[in-house]
Amino acid sequence: MTLRQSILLCSVSVPLALCALFVSRGTAEQAAVTQAQANPWMDSALPPDQRADLLQAQMTEDEQLQLVKGYYGANTSSPITKAAPENLRPILPKTSGFVPGIPRLGIPSLIETDAGVGIANHRGFRPGDQATALPSGIATAATWNPHMAYAAGSIIGTEARDHAFNVVLDGALNLARDPRGGRTFEYAGEDPLLAGTIAGSQVRGIQSQHVISTVKHFAFNDQETGRFVFSAEIDEGAARQSDLLAFEIAIERGDPGAVMCAYNRYGGAYSCESGFLLNGVLKRDWNYKGWVLSDWGAVHSTIPSANAGLDQESASGFDKTEFFGAPLKQAISDGKVARERLHDMVHRILRTMFAKGIFDYPMTKTDSNLEADRAVAEQDAEQAIVLLKNTNAMLPIAKTVHNIAIIGSHADIGMLAGGGSSQVIPTGHDQADEFPVGGAVQRLPSGAQLRPTGVKIYDPPSPLAALQAEVPGARVTYDSGVDLQNAAALARQSDVVIVFVEQWMTEGRDVPNLSLPGNQDALIAAVVAANPRTIVVLETGGPVLMPWLDQVPAVLAAWYAGSGGATALARILFGDVNPSGKLPITFPQGVDQLPRPVLPSGRAPFDIDYREGANVGYRWFEWRNLKPLFPFGYGLSYSTFRIDSMQVQGGETIHVNVDVTNSGSRQGMETVQAYATPPDASDRAVPRLIGWGKVDLKPGETRRVTISADPRLFAEFDEARHVWHLPDGQYAVAVGNSSASLPLAATVQLSARDLPP
Ligand code: NOJ
User: Fold this and answer.
1) What is the pTM of this model?
2) Over the stretch 313-342, which tens digit does the pLDDT of each residue have?
3) Residue nearest to atom 1 of ligand 1 (CA)
């Protein structure tokens, strides 16, 4: 309604209050129109590229240079970062990163937050600021549920808005080539389709709240040891079929505003100056329209980086010296970087800000609805927890139980969280419950605390409280598990024992091996010897070894389960929820089964030979004929399911239809998985996941699951011809409920075909 129409309406017959509303609405609209006229780029009806062009035409070169250089978001200098310039210090938002806006033109600042598992409180710079901790990335991947990943993402997006952060550094999906990788917990497992689908859905959920999200770390940052110096060595074809395919799928599905280039090198070149990765694969082949921002301290040059496709230097104080401010200006005036390149960098940033709603949906800080958000975190955890073993119907626990022993892993505080830049200070957290792991907490001049990456945090509520809430009449007793004899004594007096064991992972360092640290294996052995009715709950970043597995009747992988984790776990243990998580990563029997039994490392630059090529995880196990401890895709339920009536069709791609029936007596979810093996004379051809369907079934109910596969999943990337190639021939298709249990098999004929890269 225009101002004139509002006034006309008021002059006729509406009540006064309503009239005021019309006028004020009319006035606001009028103001918007006036603003759009004055600033034509504010006309939201125009396409983002056009709005960016209109705005960019008003910018000076210095303003453009300002937009492509970021600062660390907190006022500090430390051995790893230089302080931001004096004039910015008062406005730094105490978060991961900051790119000052241009008020003259109404360009908002970019305020960047880490958010792998929720809104991080970067190094505790915002004392008292708590947020919802979602289950970790690998946990959400274990749901095999893109809708859940979207829902988790929208919580992150909402809480980012509530904090007035408009760039979220989440969408982390480096493939788990080694389960010891320190960020395995943050990523989405070992398969390109699963990881790309889950991370892409999460990004889409984040961006549904009009904030920008980022996929990272592009590319091959698959381990933490030596991340600043190693070079991933893998041929292009295998790279396209594995790590790059995961990114490609995530980008197609999530349409992230930004892509973060990684610390490490690929084929000798730093990721942030790899023309192959940035200009070639990302921007040319995938036609990516957003911008490339660097990881914190990942830029090593001005001219090579700018010309290779880096669009923004993040947190420049982290780099050895600044590369994009004055040096970029100089490179442009010397003609070493084309002026059009700067224009392209800025265009990408602005068009993304328009496309994702940063201009049209301005932010104001507000309190989050933490209880509603926690409920979503709980649903995510309910579907993420994987039941690995359940013999003698040990689970679910009957609610008539009298005495329960809870042992280990600070189960009286919360559920373990991972460390590093993604660390959230969770709702209900008490600073007294922090466990420094490496290095003391430092106090900044401001009084804020600088948390080293080694502070262990447990997300409340505690499993102890959540379990007690399930059975208010029972005696639930906690023992720390430090003293094995005390733990065994408590176990002996109890009807049921739940032992919590943990493996803490953090960014920046890999775990040395896959054994549970300290005396935890011995703890389990002692407890189960004292009471065979023992349930083990794993709180780990990924796979661990289980030398006690034969003795223990029930085991669950709870990952890092987040703010809803304890409640979700309690509901599963007592049967209110039927477990449905499936492993997104292979659990090996030992590190000797991995492609690199000794984790490559070094201080000086070194190469990692990705000898497994595209055969990551379960494909490596298949290729080398190795039997894992638990296979990819595996997970039990309290019900049983039948999969039958398979039909497979060829044509342009592979189509699979199967029936799934709940043949048990409890409602529950099953994830049916389809794998295809291309015709290939080499022994490298192994089954690859081509799709899945997760269905919720009442006892006796049957549903048909339909999977139409993306042909890139079973194509080969032909480097010489720069195309995806589907060879002519018979493709083997197998269906079941894990990569190692595929009872239905068929073959299908496809004719040779090429697809664009
Ligand atoms: C380094 C990490 O690799 C990256 O994931 C994170 O977003 C930045 N630091 C900012 O904290």
Assistant:
1) 0.94
2) 999 999 999 999 999 999 999 999 999 999
3) 296
